[in-house]
Amino acid sequence: MSDMQKNSANLLGRVAIHRQVVELTYYDVADESVILIHPDVWHKCRKKFPVDEGKIRPPVGVKDARMNFAELREAAVFNGWHTMITRRDREHAVVVPLPWACQALPEVQKSSESR
User: Fold this and answer.
1) Cβ neighbours of 25 (radius 10 Å)
2) Which residue in 42, 67, 74, 84 has the most C-beta neighbors within 10 A?
């Protein structure tokens, strides 16, 4: 297991268990950040900040998410896609694009303003 795969496992646990909002940057390039959030938070935020159904990718298992996290990040950054990550067929975390997260989550908006 690579370092990236181990780190993504830890981050997914922080989101799923502790309900933390986690921002992931790519080589400190803020414009290419994505946000990991708990599924309950995502569903709640979607009521106020809808997501086009065409921008929601099919769910991905934790193992596949770890192996292909770069692809999930790029899909969110460059295409605006939201991807549900599941574990044992239960919602575990959601990868969301930074612009949507800034609108939907006040704590993300504050951190992005401080950059």
Assistant:
1) 14
2) 42
